[in-house]
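Whether sequence alone determines local backbone shape is best considered at the level of individual chains. The sequence in question and its structure tokens are set out directly beneath this paragraph.

===
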Amino acid sequence: MGFKPSAHDMCLMFKPNLMLIIYVDDVGVAAPSLKIIDKFIAELESRGFILTREGTFSEFLGIKFDEDKKTGTITLTQKGLIKKVITAAGLDDSNPNWTPASSKALGIDPEGPPMKENWSYPSIVGMLLYLSTNTRPDISYAVSQVARFNHSPKQSHAQAVKMILRYLKGTHDKGMIVKPSGKLALDDWADADFCGLFRSDPDASPTSVKSRTGYIITLSGVPLVWRSQLQSEISLSTTESEYIALSQSLCTLLPVCSLLIEVAQAIGLSPSLQATIHCRALQDNQAAYLLATMNRITNHAKYYLVKWHWFWDNHSKGHFSIHKVSTTVMRADYLTKGLVRDLFEKCRKLNQGW
């Protein structure tokens, strides 16, 4: 039918004025008009496909999309899954919580008692992971913490799961309220928490001195990709942990930028809209920012030269730019650590609109 698969994602296909995203047996279709979509569906049916047409793109893979035409905002929610996971853990009558994680990092707790709840820890965490990666970046840090212990959860880990669930109970009707800016701008907000598990995990455990990466990538001001994860190696300074977080986030940002350019050209977006495409990395650590932009190696930084300086060539060729921002507006802050309520809600407002 003339479609071309993306060079970056084989489940994304397009031709002029038509774009498809395929997920197993579900297909999302985008086009400038319903007439084009009707013609596409009719052609598929003429080839023997039996299709169920869901109508407008108001729900996909359990995610509900509600558009407010007056304000131009779109609200993404997963109320059904939140209710399901709360009920599965028997917390329908529990009191709500204001934040999903405490300010102290969740450790291994080797001497703690085993989990005593009768619900399945891996099952609950699995549902929380789906929530955290689709509509609820506000629980990503907390879920990443509890996911470490699927193999052998302690009672303290079960309590941390219940803290997340009580937070979801108080915010069950929330998700993300987004308003696209109308410009194809990609922004990468990268942050790190240096040695965040110190004194939470046993001192003899290598994880006790591991740092955490958190980043969130927005398209047109709308959260597109986000992640909270422990770094794979031990950083020896705050600068190194921040630089690693920046490098890890760019491994996602640069392919997404290439994909955006590919799609814009393939479906025939107007030159004026294509001209708004730009790609930025935003960093709040002064030392990491200077190291990334000045391309200057010192005796203190040369030991991680090979692993983390790979993106210098992309930066020098103008594929993306790096900017220094204030810590007060760092949108990835709640992906790296447990924040007190006022700071947590401020960061949530920046990303999720509420």
Observations:
- The mean pLDDT is 94.
